[in-house]
Description:
This protein is α+β, with helices and mostly antiparallel strands. It has one domain (3-157): START domain (Alpha-D-Glucose-1,6-Bisphosphate, Chain A, domain 4, 2-Layer Sandwich). It contains 4 helices and 7 strands; from the N terminus they run H-E-H-E-E-E-E-E-E-H-H. It has a 7-stranded antiparallel sheet with strand order 1-7-6-5-4-3-2, with helices on one face. A hairpin with a 3-residue loop joins strand 4 and strand 5.
Amino acid sequence: MNAKQAQSKNQDYSITLLLDNTPREVFDAITNTRGWWSEQIEGRTDALGEFKYRYQDVHRSTMKITELVPGRKVVWHVVDNYFNFIGDKTEWKDTDIVFEIEKKGDKTELRFAHVGLVPTYECYDVCSDAWRTYINGSLRNLITKGKGQPNQNDQISDKHGIEHS
């Protein structure tokens, strides 16, 4: 646990979904990142290693997939990050994005946490709203209906008055 993670314990942004799908279906949807987050991703999102996310000049990040346990867990470590709309442009750097999957009776529980994304961060409101839209909306729809809504950044940016070209 790094310093940012230690400071953020119990304040990290998280959301839990209870789904009718199997753990493997949930896992497969998570690793199909282009199907729910963004089609503008470079690199593999279903294998250990790095991938890059970019949305215009608003947000860029490099994620390193550090854990990939089929049907159980996915962890992305934010190696590098840039936001154009806040003072500390690297706010997400060295945080972890964790997806934990567990069978609960005849349901599957998905626990999502952005470890290190805390209320004291300048981007917290925008970022937590974005994660809520992606996880509870787009990813849930990809899992349950077979189709997500990637690239919703226009809506999120416009909603919060973030300038983008």
